[in-house]
Design brief:
The chain has 488 residues and is of the alpha+beta class. The protein contains 9 helices and 27 strands. The strands form 4 sheets. The protein has a 12-stranded antiparallel beta sheet with strand order 1-6-7-8-5-2-3-4-16-15-14-9, with helices on one face. A hairpin with a 2-residue loop joins strand 2 and strand 3.
C-alpha cells in the first residue's frame, strides 16, 4: 500500500497523545495499521482511550493488519517532504518493509510486527448522532476551569449535559451552551486529546455503557476518539448560580474595550498581597481601581453601567475578568461585596466569588463620591459587633437584623430578605464567623505550642533514659571486671 507521508505524520502526531511508549504491556507500545478495501485506519490505545485516524482512497494491492512499534515508526517517517509517498509491504510472516524516496535515493527499513490477535478489544461504537463544532471547542475552553486537585477527581473533568458543558474548581464555574445528543449526563476527563483541540470539525458523538464506566465516542474529521468517562456524581452546580435579576449592579463591556483591557489589566498596579482589582459601576461610569492601599491608580473604561444601583463596587481576582473576556462574556453583574459575580454572554456564563473584606471608604474617595449610606451602616455595625462586652460603646437603637429566605414578586427565590432592622441595613453576617475562626486559630496555636513543648520534654526524657541505661551498663561491666579480678 502507498500512503501520503503528511497523512501518516498527522496520524502519528495525534496518536502520541494516547500511546504510551513506556507501557508495561508490549502491545500498547504499538500502533495498529489496518487496510481494508483501500481504506487505512491507524489506531493507538492505552486501554482507557482509543484514537483512530482514517485515510481514504489509499492505493493498496491487498488488505493488511499490522502492529508496528510506535516510536520507531514515528522516528523513521519524521521530517522530509510531506508530499512523498510511503510504501508499506509485507516482508515475511512477521515483518513489514517501509520505504520512501529522499532526493532520488530509496530509504527503507524492516519493522517487526506482532500478531493482530494481541490487539486489545476496542469498545463497540453505537450509532453516532451529529453535533456541531462548538461541542469540541466548548470542552476545550472549559477544561482549564476544572479543579487541578487530584483528590477531587470528579471536578477534574468537564460535565456534559444535553444543553451545556460545565467545569468548576470550587472557586469559579464556567458553563458554555451547546446542544449535546446524549440521554444522560457524563463527566469527561481532561485528556490530552480533548485539551489539545484536535477535535474541531463538525462531527458526531455517541455514548455506550462499558463494563464499569460509560464510554464516550467522538468523531471529528479523520479522527474517531473513544474514552472512558469519570465515574461519579457531579455536584449540583445550579445552586451556585444567583438570579441575575437580583444583582443590581451590571456592566456591559464593548469588544474593543475587552481587547484593550486584556492587554492592560495584567500589568495594572496590583495590591500588596492579592492579585485583586476593584470595579466601580454607577452614575460615574465604569472604573477599575488598584487594591493597593493608598494608591490612586485607576482605569477609566468605555464600558457602560446598566444596573439599577446608583453606585456599586466589587473586588475580585482580575484573572476571572480576563477569563470572562477570553470566553466572549461581555456582561458582569453583581450586587454587594459578598454576592457572587456573574459574567454572561451569548456563549454561556461564568460565576466567581469576590474578595471579601476589601471594600473601604478609600475606593469611594478615589472616585469622588461620598460613601453610600448602606456601606456606612455596614461599617458601623461591624465596629459595634467588634466592641468588647461591658464597653461604653453606644448600642444601636434598631433591632437586630434577621434574614430569612423569601420569594421575589417575579416568583424567583431570593437568597436573603431583611424582615427587621434599619432601613437599607447591610450588617456584615461574617463578623461572628470571623471572630470564631480567630478564636479557633488562637486555640490551635496554643495547642501547637503545648505540643511542641511536650515533644521536647519527651525527647529530653528519652535521652536521659538512654544515658541511664548506658551508665548502668558501664557500672555492670566494672563490677564484672572487679569480680573476675578478685576471684569472688
Amino acid at each position: 500500500m502507498k500512503i501520503l507521508k503528511s497523512k501518516l505524520q498527522d496520524a502519528l502526531k495525534g496518536l502520541a497523545k494516547v500511546v504510551n511508549p513506556k507501557a508495561p504491556i508490549p502491545v500498547l507500545k504499538h500502533a495498529r495499521v489496518k487496510a481494508v478495501a483501500g481504506r487505512v485506519t491507524i489506531t493507538g490505545t492505552n486501554l482507557d482511550e482509543w484514537l483512530s485516524y482514517t485515510i481514504e482512497d489509499v492505493e493498496s494491492a491487498q488488505d493488511a493488519d499490522w502492529l508496528l512499534e510506535f516510536v520507531k515508526l514515528r522516528e523513521f517517517v519524521n521530517g522530509g517532504d510531506g508530499k512523498t509517498q510511503i510504501t508499506l509491504e509485507p516482508a515475511g510472516e512477521s515483518a513489514v518493509r517501509i520505504s520512501f524516496d529522499v532526493a532520488g535515493h530509496l530509504v527503507e527499513r524492516a519493522f517487526e510486527t506482532l500478531a493482530p490477535e494481541d490487539w486489545p478489544n476496542a469498545p463497540v461504537i453505537p450509532e453516532f448522532k451529529p453535533v456541531t463544532a462548538p461541542l469540541f471547542d466548548n470542552i476545550r475552553l472549559v477544561l482549564p476551569s476544572a479543579s487541578k486537585d487530584a483528590s477531587r477527581k470528579i471536578l477534574n473533568g468537564a460535565f456534559l449535559e444535553k444543553d451545556a458543558v460545565i467545569a468548576t474548581d470550587g472557586k469559579h464555574m464556567v458553563k458554555l451552551f451547546c446542544e449535546i445528543p446524549i440521554e444522560a449526563p457524563v463527566i469527561v476527563p481532561p485528556t490530552k486529546v480533548l485539551t489539545a483541540g484536535m477535535l474541531k470539525d463538525d462531527g458526531a458523538v455517541a455514548v455506550s455503557a462499558g463494563e464499569y464506566r460509560s464510554v464516550v465516542h467522538m468523531a471529528s474529521g479523520p479522527w474517531i476518539y473513544s474514552f472512558k468517562c469519570t465515574d461519579g456524581t457531579y455536584p449540583n452546580y445550579r445552586q451556585t448560580i444567583p438570579d441575575v435579576k437580583l444583582l443590581k449592579s451590571a456592566v456591559e463591556f464593548p469588544p474593543a474595550e475587552m481587547q484593550a483591557l486584556t492587554k492592560s489589566l495584567p500589568v495594572f498596579e496590583k495590591g500588596d498581597s492579592l492579585d485583586g482589582v476593584a470595579m466601580y459601576a454607577g452614575t460615574k461610569g465604569v472604573k477599575l481601581l488598584s487594591t493597593k492601599k493608598g494608591s490612586t491608580a485607576m482605569l477609566d473604561t468605555s464600558a457602560t453601567s446598566t444596573g439599577e444601583k446608583e453606585h456599586g463596587i466589587a473586588v475580585f481576582d482580575r484573572k476571572y475578568l480576563l477569563k470572562a473576556f477570553s470566553l466572549g462574556l461581555t456582561r458582569i453583574s453583581f450586587d454587594c461585596k459578598y454576592s457572587p459575580l456573574v459574567a454572561a454572554g451569548e456563549k454561556g456564563l461564568m460565576v466567581f466569588m469576590p474578595i471579601r473584606g476589601m471594600i473601604s471608604d478609600e475606593y469611594w474617595k478615589r472616585i469622588g463620591i461620598e460613601t453610600p449610606k448602606e456601606e456606612k451602616v455596614a461599617m458601623t455595625e461591624k465596629t459595634q459587633t467588634a466592641a468588647p462586652q461591658g464597653s461604653t460603646a453606644e448600642k444601636p437603637d434598631t433591632e437586630k437584623k434577621v434574614v430569612t429566605p423569601a420569594t421575589s414578586p417575579t416568583g424567583t427565590r431570593e437568597t436573603f430578605k431583611v424582615v427587621h432592622g434599619a432601613a437599607n441595613g447591610t450588617a456584615d453576617p461574617f463578623d461572628e464567623l470571623q471572630k470564631a475562626v480567630t478564636e479557633i486559630r488562637n486555640a490551635a496555636k496554643t495547642l501547637a505550642d503545648s505540643m511542641g513543648g511536650l515533644q521536647r520534654k519527651i525527647a529530653e526524657t528519652q535521652r536521659a533514659v538512654k544515658q541511664r541505661e548506658k551508665d548502668f551498663r558501664n557500672t555492670r561491666e566494672i563490677l564484672d571486671k572487679l569480680k573476675n579480678a578478685s576471684g569472688f
